[in-house]
Design brief:
The chain is mainly β and about 325 residues long. It contains 1 helix and 27 strands.
Amino acid sequence: MAAPAPAPAQTPRSGRQLILAGHGYEAVIASVGATLRTLTFDGRDLIVPFAADEVRPGYRGATLAPWPNRVVDGTYSFGGDEHQLALTEPARGHALHGLLAWTEFADRVVEDDRVVLVAVIEPQLGYPFRIEVAVEFHLDSHGLNQTVTARNIGADAAPWGTGPHPYLVGGAGRVDDWTLTLPASEVLTVTPDRLSPVAVEAVDQHPEWDFREPRRIGDVFIDHAFTEISRAEGVAEVRVVAADGHGVALSWDERCPWVQVHTADLPADASNSRIGLAVEPMTCPPDAFNSTVDLIVLDPGAETAASWRFRAI
């Protein structure tokens, strides 16, 4: 009697695992959501990791597209039509972080120091546009660079925005123990219950969120978008550093005039609360599908790209 056939190998819950290594860095990219699952330098974490066979906790490390952050009430008007998106943040009643976070991306390029993953946003209720999204991760001596390129392969102009969702790790301890440098002079205030945008105000009016000069984060709560970011030769950089002087920096150019920062407070889950600082460069602010502030409109055949770089300190 023939032996039973072996059970087929199971793909990990986070998808295929693509490893980039060199120059002291190692990055593991998970194909579901084109997610940066782990990133280390000389063995120390630069982002909060999660296990390959774990359902990704929230949006940790995911690529956000065709919008980052929230669309308030999931409703917006574009091209003279009203649209209703699925409410993927049901507790607050918003559409959160785009449409690709749980999509399986296909391989376009797989090399030792570079991978390119690709997926297509197909026309659907709430977003009747067709966008090809390519996500490139490239590792070199300067760190890990991620680039998101969108190409409109449909027949109609489409609204677009993107950004990443890493939780940076300064070192030992938690968010409270680390020093943050955030060179932004304006903050988008939000409602306390739903985090809906209210107004852009100077951080001078909100000293608790003023990190233009490096200082310890302490017990301050942050879940806000910042703008008017000072740059060196066009490049903005946020730094998170532990008491021993080690840490991580995330930098980006003018294609991302906004950055969302969140202290990752989880009152109901003390063991995972404030274990990483979310730093999310964004091409547009929260609810840009309604405000149209810095919203990218992709005409048929048009292409746009944005990128950011992680490096160890």
